UniProtKB/TrEMBL annotation:
Organism in which the protein naturally occurs: Pseudomonas fluorescens
Protein name: Zinc-binding protein
Phylogenetic lineage: Bacteria, Pseudomonadati, Pseudomonadota, Gammaproteobacteria, Pseudomonadales
Composition bias, Basic and acidic residues: 128-138
Signal peptide (residue range): 1-20
Matching InterPro entries: ZrgA-like
Compositionally biased residues, Acidic residues: 116-127
Length: 196
C-alpha cells in the first residue's frame, strides 16, 4: 500500500515547494505545520488501486488532543475511530466504481499508539512569565487501500462527508495523482469535490 503513497511526495514536490513558499510568505510556517481546522489528504489512483491517506490534527476530528481519560472523551475517540473505519461512507466513493477496502490503518496517540520519535510534536515552551507549559499536538493518520472493479467510474473524489462528520475541519489540502496527472488543491465544505 505504501508504494504509491511513498512516491506521491516526490511526484508532488514541485507543488509542495510552491505551496511552501506561499505559506512562508503568509505565515512563516512549514508544510508539516500542525494547524487546527486544516487536514491533509494524499490520494493516488493507479489502475484498479486507489490509495488514500488522511492526516489531521485530532482537534479537527475529536475536538481535543489530550489522551482521553474521562468516559465522555473515551466515547468520543471510539465514535471517531468507528467513523474512520468506514472509509467507503466517509469518502462517498461512487457505487458504480465497485471499490472494496483491501487494507486500512489508523494511527494516533489517542488510539493508544506511541508516536514515532521523529513525529513527536510535544514541545516544552515558556510563556511570557517564564512558566513552562506543554503543548501537545496529537494527529490522527488514516491510510486506506481500495481495489476498484471499475476505476473509470471514479470521476471525482467527494469529501463532503468529512466536512459534515467533522465540522471543525475547515480545509483539506489534497495532493492527488490520477489518470489525468497530478494536482494539488485546497478543498473546503463549499467546494468539497475534486476531479480525478
Amino acid at each position: 500500500m505504501r508504494r504509491l503513497l511513498l512516491a506521491l511526495p516526490f511526484a508532488m514536490l514541485p507543488l509542495a515547494v510552491a505551496h511552501a513558499a506561499d505559506e512562508h510568505d503568509h505565515e512563516h510556517g512549514s508544510l508539516d505545520a500542525h494547524e487546527h481546522g486544516v487536514g491533509r489528504l494524499n490520494a493516488a489512483l493507479d489502475g484498479k488501486t486507489l490509495e488514500l491517506e488522511l492526516e489531521s490534527p485530532a482537534m479537527n476530528l475529536v475536538g481535543f488532543e489530550h489522551v482521553a481519560t474521562s468516559d465522555a472523551d473515551k466515547a468520543k475517540v471510539a465514535a471517531v475511530r468507528a467513523l474512520l473505519e468506514q472509509p467507503l461512507a466517509l469518502f462517498n466513493l461512487p457505487k458504480a466504481a465497485g471499490c472494496v477496502v483491501e487494507n486500512q490503518e489508523l494511527e494516533s496517540p489517542l488510539f493508544g499508539d506511541k508516536p514515532d520519535a521523529d513525529d513527536d510534536h510535544d514541545e516544552d515552551a515558556k510563556d511570557e512569565d517564564g512558566h513552562e507549559h506543554h503543548d501537545d499536538h496529537s494527529e490522527i493518520h488514516a491510510r486506506y487501500q481500495f481495489t476498484c472493479a471499475t476505476p473509470a467510474a471514479l470521476k471525482s473524489l467527494d469529501l463532503a462527508n468529512i466536512f459534515t462528520r467533522f465540522p471543525a475541519t475547515q480545509k483539506i489540502q489534497v495532493q492527488l495523482i490520477g489518470p489525468s496527472g497530478q494536482q494539488g488543491v485546497d478543498v473546503t465544505a463549499k467546494a468539497a469535490a475534486l476531479k480525478f
